[in-house]
Amino acid sequence: MPIKPENRARYPANWPEIREGILRRALWRCEHEGCEALHHDVGYWLNGKFVPMPRALRDAGCSAGQTVACWGGGEVKLIKIVLTIAHLDHTPENCDPANLRAWCQRHHLAYDQAHHTTNAYMTRKARANTMELPL
Fold first, then answer.
1. 3-state DSSP of 77-119
2. What per-residue confidence (pLDDT) applies to 1?
3. Which of 35, 48, 16 is nearest to 104 (CA)?
């Protein structure tokens, strides 16, 4: 996930090298259990699993962003996998390799869902300038 400008100072100066090291450790694959998605691979999600684009579609000139017909009668949207580095404790300053995972965006977003929900709530509350009422 892109680093928000307001959080950029929280990352160490050598973040690009740290990120590269985590991607190398992961062999450029999503480290989420059961996910085999490769960095920059094109394909689609089917039943919770990433399916690389079949060669026939590649040979036909298909690319990420296109919707293609499936053999089962449905359609799938081709996507490009981008591996992101997740901080398990949501703290950018903690760059211990044990705290970092190379995950595809799907699994990174799923892991961060509760964190994002809390942040969105706090942002809306701050904009509305409201206070919490005691229970």
1. ECEECCEEEEECCCCCCCCCHHHEEEEEHHHHHHHHHHHHHHH
2. 62
3. 35
